[in-house]
Every structure is written in structure tokens, then in C-alpha cells.
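Budget justification note: compute hours in this period were largely spent on complex prediction jobs such as the one shown. Inputs:
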Amino acid sequence: MSADRYLADVELAWCPGCGNFAIRKALAMALDRLDLPPHRVVLVTGIGQAAKIVHYVNVNGFNGLHGRTVAAAAAIKLVRPDLTVIAESGDGDLYGEGGNHLLHNIRRNVDLTVIAHDNRVYGLTKGQASPTAPLRYKTRAQPSGTPVRPLNPLAIAVALDAAFVAQAFSGEIERTADLITQAISHRGFALVNVLHPCPVWNRVQNFMWFKERVYPVEGEGHDPTSREAALRVAFGDGERLPTGVIYRRAGPIYDDLHPVLQGDPLGLRPLRTPEELAPLLAQFV
Amino acid sequence: MDLAVRIAGAAGQGVQSLGEVLARAAFRQGLFVHGELSYHSRIRGGENAFTVRISDRPVLATRDQVEVLVALNAPMYRQYLPLLAPGGWTVADEGISAEGERDLRLPAEGLAKDELALPLAAGTILLGAAARLLGLPREAGEGALAAVFGDKAGPNQRAFALGWERAPDGPWILPGPRFPPGSHALLTGGQAVGLGAIAAGVRFVASYPMTPGTPVMEFLAAHGERYGILVEQAEDEIAAINMALGASYAGARSLVTTSGGGFALMVEGLSLAGMIETPVVIHLGQRPGPATGLPTRTAQENLLFALHAGHGEFPRYLVAPSDPESAFYLTIKAFELAEEFQVPAILLTDQFLVDSFAVVPAPAPSRVPVAEHLLPVEELERLPHYNRFELTESGVSPRARPGVSEKLVLVDSDEHDPYGRITEDLAIRRAMVEKRLRKGRGLRERVAPPEVFPEEVRGKRVLLGWGSTYGAIQEAVGILGKEYAHVHLRELWPLRAEELRRVWDEAAEVILVEGAATGQLATLIAGETGLRPHRLIPRYDGRPFTAHGIAEEVAG
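Corresponding output:
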């Protein structure tokens, strides 16, 4: 078998040079390494250039609303723990429109993998600042440079004690695939923030800009089981961009703590018979 | 025989529990009961009033005037004394002034403190006294206390007995049982919606607490473990509807429960349900708006909102139960139609229906058949190729769960081809719009006609209503006499126009009774038929209609 079995034979509407191509390939490689049958995977996406990935791969798909990606994905996993559920979308979708769902689903700690395409700019709506765009970044919508400080997804995830937090760079396909593989394998909420260039709208943070700044955290002896160390790495030094596993922890997930989720997947259970309702109805007659 | 008792006090004084005990005690005697809760939006203080009607006939509406007022504090006594019926009694602690004609005063607070060491039991002492006045046997009250308080019933039963022993017999004689044990149920509308959802196979509930949607969420949470229902408190209503759609896509029947403000946040998700043709049931418990409005009061202001919510065009099922019995059956129907036609179904209730108790015929879960509408795995396996949005005559495409066969299931919020892939092929776009709308035709055929009572309306003045006003209008017609008739809608969309045209053709006058200021059903019917009610009896002060209130308005 090969990673190609996950790739849909369709025309890709991404721009030449877009980091999304590499992330699509890395995702297919990760699924192949885990040897997950395509029909046992659900990819949930929102809206944006990144979210189109659901149409470019061969797995089950739920392409929902802008920003609501993680909410829909969490529920799919809650009722179908037998399936591998991956939520994938852009920085605007996951960190802007859907920020609230990201926060609360880290708390919810469903066994879910979230892959964020982080190019610090809006692609589909043509170049406005994304939540991760740097201060004073100039766009047509922010012509004098955005006065809003960037959001740090890694620090937020570590602060909320996410089960698994990693950062990858689309220029390193193998490494990205490896981090996605680890994220899927890790039990609990896993965030992989994938830095990637947007050759059309982000001329400042281009491929070379990222390439010069990324560094592997393991090369500097980072201990991803230490939350303190993880926060330090996540805060960064203002210059370099860490890649690798920033933080991981074991511990109970949502399902372990909920009595209703101990039996067969709720989404596969049969309908009830009228007789099953009788004892409850009897309480009211 | 029709008696009403009002228990009024501050929030935190146990008004709701006392009301429920009284309702249950009368129900155990085989009598019909209606219990209406009216409260301020606060946890301590404010005004709480529970009005219990006891009758030898079914009652589904509340009353303003009562025969017995149990006042738990002086302000409530003064506020409600003017609503005491001629010959009525008030029951209160001896510390509260007695300005009426028949004021029973008991040392309830002293007894509760000294004899029971349970100051909160003063209310139960007064309730015991009221029960004696009404002619309710002591055992009925004690049994009801056991049902409501469970393990903690003991001290309350003693308190009830203390009050009962100190009260005189009242002027009323309750009739014998009107129905055999087991034939009827005492239910709130909220409980009935919850029971209906369980009967319909609900497996997943995501909701953000909002009055009056919350009782349904809490009911299902209480029974979730036993019946295998995951109830998750979402971070907001946007998450709730998107979670429900995710769970439904994955194969779990799903419900969200909310009120107007929460539903407003769900609107984009409603449109998604229309686009990805994924069933979901939305329980929308109405309260007065705009915005936060009157959070704990009742209204019927969301009819047009529920009908028109969502951008784009797609079919939906909109149904407004009139009482706990129809709430049970119509909740099942909402789930079934949502599944069969792969559309969102909106269950439109209100605070009055959700919180009020009524005695109704015991629900029979087998009366509305519940069937699996998902494509069986064997059939899915046999298909050479699976298209989630296959173009069909009925517009309904076979819906498969993901992950049960090698066939992939793809849904997309963008316009999509039959497989589910995003498309801008405009011929496919046209075909998909038409396919989705074709489902509305099948849905229309499944809608029941409005209830017309009596069947012959020729020459009569018709009181037209929908949803929870049913009981009050029905009673009002009884008061107004033979010149009047009642036409009631429960299933509001798709709208059955034929019967309405006949009503307009034959009736002398059509008068819309609605818990809103602008006559929303009038707008809906006019849009479909060009017909308009001749008069409107609106109510928008957050209180439910009463039969006398309607009759007075009609008579002018």
C-alpha cells in the first residue's frame, strides 16, 4: 500500500507554491503509516483554502461551516469513537472564527487531531490579516498595518493543558507527516500547527523566511512532558520558530470520564423499542 | 368542578415543589390537574407563583382567579388577594395580616422551627392546611410528598400533617376519581418533549442552558445513562447545532434545545442542516424578546423567525405542540420526519408549555412508529458506487453512516455534486436546489390538518390559535357558547392550506389568538392563501392566555 490511496484524483484549486500541497501529502503519509483504511477516517473541515483539503483526499468527509470545524469533529468522535477523526482547517477558521470552539474542545479533551494550516494570512478572501499575522502587518483591509497582536496557538494549547501540542513546517514533509502520525496516535486532543507560506498573499513570510527560522526542539534537549518547558518554547524568543512535539501528557480523556460512553458507539446503536420506555413512563402515570 | 389554588412566595421558598406536591396529590385522587409556574428571573427573592387547577374534566390552561391562596409572605398576600374568587380562602402564617373574608392563619413558622427544627417546612404546613380546605385526603398529600421529595419526605410529611390537622374542612367537595390508575400521566411539556425524544431514539444532545430550553436538556441528562444518551453542555449555541449535525452525520439521532436568543446563534447551522441534508431536531422554547426580553415568561413570538431562519432555500418541518400529550407524539414525529426527509425539524414550544404540569392520557410510545431511515449496511455494500446526494424523484437520497462499509460518505456545506464534492457546475447547482426542494412536497403530505372544533364552522365566529394556547381557547369557546368554534394548528410548516380556506369560506369571522403583538400566524396564512384573520387578540406581557381573558376580549 502507499500514501497515494488517500489522494483523490481531482483538480486541486490551490495556487502554485502553496504549502497546502505539502500538508496534503504529509497527511496521506501519516494515514498510510498508521495503515488506516480510508473508510475508517473522517476528515472534518471548515471554510478557507486549507479546508478544501477534504475534497482532495479519499476519506469520509464533513465540510461544515466556517469556524465550526472542531465542534462538529468533536461530536463525530464522541458518538463514533471507533473512527479516526481529524479536524483540519486554516488559521482564520480555527483561531479566528472558531477560537471559542478550540478553547473549549481542548478542555473537553476528546480523542481528536486538529491540523491547523497557519500561513498568517487569509487566502480565500484575498489577503487580510489572520489571527496569527504579526503586529503591523499590512494588507488591503489593514492598510496602515494591523494594530492587533498575534495569537500564539501553541502557548494557548499548552496553557489549557492540551493532551498533545506540536508545530510543523510544510517545507519539511517527512517531519510534518511524522508529527501528524504522533498526533493521531496520541490519546486525547492533539493540535498540530503547521506553518506554511502563502506565495500569493504573504510576500513577507515566504518559504525562505520560514525556512531560516524553524528549528527542531528536540535538537535543544526540549522535554515535551514538562509543561513549563513547553510554555517557554511556545512563547519563543521572538526570532526562531520551534518545530516538533512541544507538549504531551497522558491522562483520562472525555470518554473515560463519562458513563454514557462506556458501551457501543452511540452512533451505531439501534433504535429503542417502545417497551424500553415503559419503566420511565411508569414514573409519570 | 373546577378549583384553583395559588401558592405564592419568594424564590427559594419552595413554591415549585409545593405546587408539584399539590398537583400530584390531586392527580393521585384521579382528578385532572393543571399546574402553572410563573416566576421572576432570579434565584432568591422575587415572585414565584404556582397556580394549580383541579377539575373533573381535562384542563390545559391556567386561571387568574383562585379559590385558595397560599401566601408564603406578606407581599404575595397583598398582590394576589384581589384575585381571590368569591367565597375563597387565604392560608398564611399568623404573622401575615388578614384582610380578606376567610383568612386561615397558622403558626406555621413557629411550628416549623420548634416542632420540626426545619424552618423551610413552614410552606408544607400551609400546604397541608390548604389541602384540608380543598377536601384532599391527608394520605394523598403524604403520598405526593414521598414522590416529590423521596428520601427527604419524612419531615415534610410531618409538616403537612401539622397543617392538615389545624385546618377546618372547607366548603368544597372533591368528586371521585375521573380515570382509572395508569390511564393518565402528570407531565410538564418539557418532560413530554424529553420522553418523546427518548422514544424517538435520541442519542446525542448538545445545548447551552437557556430558559425555557433547559428543562429538556436536564431531563435527558437525568436519563442519559439509562438510555444511552450523551448530553453535552456546549460552549455556545453555535457549537451546539454544529455538534448535533456532526453527531447526526455520524449516525446518532440528535437534538438541540434552546430559546430565541440561542436559536438566533444557531441559524447558520440550520442552513447547514438544509445543505448537507442531515437531520436534526431543534427544540425552541419561546420566551418574550427582543434580545433577552423577559427570560422566565412565555410568548409565541418566534413563529416567523423559526419559519424563515436560515439563509438560502431548503425545506423544514415546523411543529408547535399544544399540550404535554401532543408534545410527546409530535416530538417523535419531528424526529421521524427529520430522519425520513433529511431536514431540520423545529419543535416550537414556550415557557408556559415547558413548565406547566397537566394530566393527559398516558403516552403510548408505539402510537407513532419509529423506523430506521439510514441505509442498511447490506444495501450500501451492494451499491457499485455510493453518492450521498444521489438525485432522486422524491429528492431524498439514501443516507449512509460513515465507517460501516468501504463506501465513503462526504457532505459539504458548499454546493456539491451527487457524491458530495464541491462544485460550481451550474447545471448541477440547479439540479441540487430542485432535489432539496422536492423533499418539501413529500413532507407536505405528511402534515396533519388543523383541528376544527366543532367540525362544522358555518356561520360561526372562529377562534384561531396555534401551539400552547389550545387549552385556553378551547375553554373560551365553552364560555362563549355555540356561536363560536375553535381552529387550532400544531403542524405549522409545511402549511395545510385547504382546510384553512374552508374555514374562511364558511366562518362568520376568524379571530386570531396569539401570544405576540403582531399576529404572526396571520402573516403566515396570508402569505400562503391571501386570507387574513378579521381580528387579532394578542398577548405580549409574558403571561399565558386564560379562557376568561380571551372570552372577555372577544365579547369586547
